[in-house]
Design a protein that fits this description.
The structure is a single chain. This protein has about 350 residues and is of the alpha/beta class. It has six helices and 17 strands. It has two domains: about 240 residues, QueA-like, CATH 3.40.1780; about 80 residues, Thrombin, subunit H (Beta Barrel), CATH 2.40.10. Strands 2-1-17-16-14-3-12-13-15 form a nine-stranded mixed beta sheet. A six-stranded antiparallel barrel has the order 5-6-7-10-9-8.
Length: about 350
């Protein structure tokens, strides 16, 4: 299986630069994974395709305003830091630009001095381990000075930071949004619950590796990045009850999917736990938990289009993407959605 098999031609103008309002007015492509049949709706119609007794499992991770701009203390030279992963306390793994200015022992200032930083280590991959210091709570300070780490294909400025958060985001820690959930409004979720569909949550902190291209020709040789996840007992109970009643477990997004399938693969069942996952799902994988998937449209040759191809079938997905391009759907993080059942 070659990476190039997952290529499709996408006109640049179909890459969504801004979110639609309201959230649930985005378009929805319905894909039957058994027959390959396609239908076109809006996201608010999703309630018509959910049945009483089904459950939705969503990722409640919240995006950090992880991009900060500052200066080198001794020279005043401009720098950009992107926080990737908390090591402990105020020590973080960080991407620094330009990297040549960020050597061990060098200090930086952010937000007119309300936060300072010192590089303590340069990793093999070029990322820096950095100690931050501020008078207030670190995350409160970050909220004042940080910007949302939007994907590189979004070039327009985001006016409202909350539009890159799901309405149910709760656990701070992601470097990118679990974007399938951006389509839900609080009102739509209330309607879904009122229909007898339970909503459970997992937490998977999305890393920037989610945007990392697959650079090997042989898909099976790709090394996945690692991300931290947590599944609470309440969610385990919802899933087990749903399956016992013969109803469907539907993941909201590839991050929720990867969390559930990681745990089921490791333990042979869904159980309350936390840990790190680097599961790579591509065609040939046998799903252990999922009956349905709500997802956005993903980059060509990405691990995410490989995951949805594993779930819905390669031919079905490549045909659905071709149809979405022809029908001028909006693609990627702020784009339209697909529901696969």
């Amino acid at each position: 299986m070659k990476t190039s098999d997952f290529y499709y031609d996408l006109p640049k103008e179909l890459i969504a630069q801004t979110p639609v309002e309201p959230r649930d007015s985005s378009r929805l492509l319905l894909l039957d994974k058994n027959s390959g049949a396609i239908d076109h709706k809006h996201f608010y119609d999703i309630i018509d395709y959910l049945e009483e007794g089904d459950c939705l499992i969503a990722n409640d991770s919240r995006v950090l305003p992880a991009r900060i701009f500052g200066t080198k203390l001794d020279t005043g030279a401009n720098v950009e830091f992107l926080l990737l992963k908390q090591i402990r306390g105020n020590r973080w793994e960080t991407l620094c630009k330009p990297g040549k200015k960020a050597k061990p022992g060098v200090k930086f200032s952010f937000g007119d001095g309300i936060m300072t930083a010192e590089v303590v280590e340069v990793k093999e991959d070029g990322n820096r381990i950095v100690d931050f210091d501020c008078d207030e709570n670190f995350f409160a300070t970050l909220d004042k000075i940080g910007q949302m780490p939007l994907p590189p294909y979004i070039t327009e400025k985001l006016e409202n930071k909350e539009r890159y958060q799901t309405v149910y985001s709760h656990e701070l820690g992601s470097a990118a949004a679990p974007t399938a959930g951006l389509h839900f409004t609080t009102e739509l979720m209330d309607k879904i619950r009122a229909k007898g569909i339970k909503i459970g949550y997992v937490t998977l902190h999305v890393g920037l590796g989610t945007f990392r291209p697959v650079k090997v020709d042989d898909v099976t040789k790709h090394k996945m990045h690692s991300e931290h996840y947590e599944i609470p007992q309440e969610t385990v109970d919802i899933i087990n009850e749903t399956r016992k009643n013969g109803k469907r477990v539907i993941a909201v997004g590839t991050t929720s999917c990867r969390t559930l399938e990681s745990v089921a693969t490791q333990f042979g069942e869904i159980k309350a736990c936390d840990g790190w996952t680097d599961i790579f799902i591509y065609p040939g994988y046998e799903f252990k938990v999922l009956d349905g998937l709500i997802t956005n449209f993903h980059l060509p040759e990405s691990t995410l289009i490989m995951l949805v191809s594993a779930f819905a079938g390669f031919d079905n997905i490549m045909n659905a993407y071709k149809t979405a391009v022809e029908q001028k759907y909006r693609f990627f993080s702020f784009g339209d959605a697909m529901m696969i059942v």
